[in-house]
UniProtKB/TrEMBL annotation:
Residue ranges of every copy of the VOC domain listed in the record: 1-127
PANTHER family found in the cross-reference section: GLYOXALASE/BLEOMYCIN RESISTANCE PROTEIN/DIOXYGENASE, GLYOXALASE_BLEOMYCIN RESISTANCE PROTEIN_DIOXYGENASE
Protein name: VOC family protein
InterPro entries per record: Glyas_Bleomycin-R_OHBP_Dase (IPR029068), Glyas_Fos-R_dOase_dom (IPR004360), VOC_core (IPR037523)
Length: 127
């Protein structure tokens, strides 16, 4: 068994697709109409057959409440690995990304946290 898809709630699918592809650099793998919303999944350009990240609409009240609560408590919704966190931090700052935590050493790891503009905090980590 392996993880093939994981999801993140987003407030606006178009805005999320733009941010995750144009700003972060993920590749759109699926964009399929599913009634009122779409099945939009992105993947890492380094592993296009790897785990997909589903940009899932937060239209359910439980999804909205969950997303708002973890955001307000400063809890990242997910984590992405990077090879060089300082270079990635600089690249994203230059693209206008707002960080809530600059790269910070935590034992053997360095982490940073940013706002994805879609209702989530995202953590990046260099292991």
């Amino acid at each position: 068994m392996k993880i093939i898809v994981t999801s993140i709630f987003v407030e606006d699918q178009d805005k999320a697709l733009a941010f995750y592809s144009e700003t972060l650099g993920f590749v759109k793998k699926h964009d399929v109409p599913t009634g009122e919303f779409r099945w939009i999944a992105v993947v890492s350009p380094e592993d296009q057959k790897g785990t997909e990240l589903l940009l899932e609409p937060n239209n359910h009240p439980a999804a909205k409440a969950y997303q708002k609560k973890i955001f307000s408590d400063g809890i990242p919704a997910t984590m992405f690995g990077v090879a060089d966190i300082h270079a990635e931090y600089t690249r994203l700052i230059e693209k206008g990304v707002k960080f809530t935590m600059e790269p910070t050493k935590m034992g053997d790891f360095t982490i940073a946290v940013f706002d994805d503009t879609c209702g989530n905090l995202i953590q990046i980590i260099q292991q």
